[in-house]
User: Fold this.
Amino acid sequence: MKDTILITGVSREEGLGFETAKQLHNSGHKVIITARNEDKVNELAKRIGTDGLVVDITNQESIDSLVQKFEKKYETLDVLINNAGAFFDMGTQPLEVEMNFAKSAFDTNLFGAWRMIQAFTPFLRKSHNGRIVNVSSGAGSFEDPVFGLPVHQGIVPTYGLTKLALNGLTVKLARQLQD
Assistant:
């Protein structure tokens, strides 16, 4: 086997996480997929031929449980792919956003990834070349031709802000973890 790779948010066969997991597994990597729904993650893991584990990235106890399960079976982690994401609020304007919706979106799209990074960095440091991949979006960019701020003020405001914040976290972590 090549690298050991953990991917969050693999709950739909038509999703980016599933396709990424499938291709990485087919390339010889050891892939572990995660999702909140046990039935879905087990079904998709079976289709790929890999391991599936349950985690709710918005819940620290759930992440701690995942860490315990992970460390019983694996010594290191080579790649953490924070793919989990939600709350795509297409067409909503910033002044229309419900704050509880915004809090939930940030909890999943930003803080969930941040929690996972904090929890799995010890395993990544044991790797020969540990890497973190935070799946973002053009919606979190100032210059994206579709979602960029000069083009579409207000389209996917909450989702876009969570991805913009995730991009900022990625920059900060790249500096801290550069070695």
User: Anything to note?
Assistant: The helical segments are 16-26, 38-48, 60-73, 99-125, 157-176. The chain has five helices and five strands. The longest strand covers residues 30-35.
